[in-house]
């Protein structure tokens, strides 16, 4: 990760994150989260792979599709990168897409790039 520019990291991270989310949710969770990972989804915060899996595999998200609009990133001391993604989420074919914002504090271990922290928020209005 050190050799890539932050914007390149954001591009590659977002591409894999949202593609994996839509193709294999269980593999997605195992790849991107660790036992110490924290997810805040709207106003609820959960910690650990099992709790995060419960949130991302909720019934209302089973057919969710993301369309990413923007990706930005900055390096953080300690080898971390903060990534901000904005876009649209559509829960079902019949639902109108909703704006969302998602920010990640990512790092790397022997399994790959993962989310230390993940904040997801729908943007209303």
Write the layout of secondary structure elements.
Elements: H1 6-23, H2 25-32, E1 33-41, E2 44-47, H3 49-56, E3 65-76, E4 80-90, E5 98-109, E6 112-123
Parallel strand pairs: 1-6
Antiparallel strand pairs: 1-2, 3-4, 4-5, 5-6
Helix pairs in contact: 1-2, 2-3
Describe this structure as you would to a colleague.
It is a single chain. By secondary structure, the chain is α+β, with helices and mostly antiparallel strands. 27% of the residues lie in helices and 48% in strands. The chain contains three helices and six strands. It has helices at residues 6-23, 25-32, 49-56, and strands at residues 33-41, 44-47, 65-76, 80-90, 98-109, 112-123. It has a six-stranded mixed β-sheet. β5 and β6 (112-123) form a beta hairpin. α1 (6-23) runs antiparallel to α2.
The strand order across the widest sheet is 2-1-6-5-4-3
How many β-strand runs? 6
Q: Could you tell me the strand content as a percent range? A: over 45%
Mean pLDDT: 94
Oligomer: single chain
- Overall shape: it is globular
Integer-rounded radius of gyration:
14 Å
Structural class of the secondary elements? alpha+beta
Instruction: Tell me the major beta sheet.
Output: 6 strands, mixed
Query: How far apart are the termini?
Result: 36 Å
- Number of helix segments? 3
Residue runs with pLDDT of under 50 for 5 or more positions:
none
As a percent range, the share of helical residues equals 25-40%
Q: What letter string, H or E per element, gives the SSE order?
A: HHEEHEEEE
